[in-house]
Amino acid sequence: MRKLASTISVILFSITVSFCQSNHSDAVIYSRHPVLSMAATPEAGGFSSKRLTRIDTALQEYVDKGRMNGAVAMIVHDGKIVYYKNFGYNDIDTKAPLQKDAIFRIASQTKAITSVAVMMLFEEGKFMLDDPISNFIPEFKNPKVIDKFNRADTTYTTVPAKREITIRDLLTHTSGLGYAQIGSAEAKALYAKAGVVGGIGVPNYILAEKMKILGTLPLFHQPGEKFTYGLNTDVLGYLVEVASGMSLKDFFHKRIFEPLGMKDTYFYLPADKQKRLAMLYTEDSTTKMPVKMKERVNVVNEMFRDYPNMKGTYYSGGAGLSSTIYDYAIFLQMLLNGGEYNGKRLLSHNSVRMMTMNQIGEISRGPNKFGLGFGITTEQGSAVLPTQEGTFEWGGMFATTYWVDPKEKLIGLLYRNIWPTSWGKLSNLYKVLVYQAMNY
To answer: How far apart are CA 203 and CA 284, in angstroms?
Structure first.
């Protein structure tokens, strides 16, 4: 009987150990994939309440001194929201406050979402990253590169490109494409003449039509030889449409926004959300004080201020979305989690690894590099600001910005809607203020 009892004890002990190990393993897996929630206190989230007030002071000072109308700021650490505040006004004239759930024009922050869509299709075997884009958009076959350009009449001569543009070239902005509306003088002139748009504030076009025209135009340098910020991600948006058989709008909503629970992110807002669109401001040319942007402005092409509230048909993969700071934090948390959020996996962790590593080799981009859709902080870049090596980031034309620091498990976002602004350095100042408030 003693021997039997001893045997039973050993079995029960083994079962208990196995159960505990299983639970521990589940706990570890869960801890790797947090879901956004509010920290009980900043201290519980690893931040100092006292030192966070320095952010309050700085952002309120920007409002009080007329450097901006308002802003919304958020800090997420290891899935816990430790800071989420709004400052200033949505309407300076009436003193209506800018709300935390305001929907902002996020412009080039659209690029990260399009890049994720491309990588999702890559994982499904729709293409390889080094496939020529002309396999999917024939107009890009046999590209040419500008040799000489006459600014006076936008005429030019060309030489043959040494190779085709690849999907990887587009993800890294090394294809040789320029930017309409906001690019170089040559790019703006050439694209305006051809009717190609930058996708910002231009609702009444069709993406496929414009990208096919773009494919017939010359490049500004040989593919893969330089970093030139351009219409690359708009082309990728059309690639998503071709490879998936869905509009970019539908792909985003069915494959990304709905699974993640991003309820306030759209190309064009439904009627019940239009009142939440943040007012777009600009600067008085003399005083530099913020003033409401006119309803129509000319940025090479005509741009409509309130385009998110229009019934648009142009789905710009490079600049078309509007969103809340909370929605975009969910998207970034998914990436920080290695491609998964709240039980929904969009990407494998190795695809996220590829997106957030140097993909441009020795091509110059200041102290930092570029991945597949993101700017990447290098060791050299980490000496400039507190962001750790490996941080990935970008922003939008209308003064929205974000970064993700995987080493610190940290996400920072700062949203304004003003263009242009003389106070662009606020985004880097905000980084300094976030890191100084960490409690460890």
So the answer is: 26
216 strand-pairing partners: none
Neighbours of 288 (CB within 10 A): 12
Of 115, 242, 116, the residue nearest 171 (C-alpha) = 115
**312: burial class by Cβ within 10 Å (0-12, 13-18, 19+)?**
buried
Which DSSP helix (H) or strand (E) runs through 89? strand 80-91
User: SS3 of 88, please?
Assistant: strand
CB of 392 closer than 8 Å to CB of 403: yes
Q: What is the pLDDT of residues 257-302, one digit of tens each?
A: 999 999 999 999 999 999 999 999 999 999 999 999 999 988 657 8
> What are the CB-based long-range contacts (under 8 Å, 24+) for 89-97?
89/63, 90/278, 90/279, 91/279, 92/290, 92/292, 93/292, 97/70
* Digit-coded pLDDT (tens) for 194-229: 999 999 999 999 999 999 999 999 999 999 999 999
The answer to whether 72 and 114 are in contact (CB under 8 A) is no
Amino acid found at 37: S
d(Cα 1, Cα 4) in Å, to the nearest integer? 5
Cα(24)–Cα(94) distance, rounded to whole angstroms? 55
pTM over 0.90: yes
In sequence order, the 6+-apart residues with CB closer than 8 A to the CB of 115 are 171, 233, 236, 355, 372, 373, 374
Nearest alpha-carbon partner for 374 in 388, 356, 362: 356
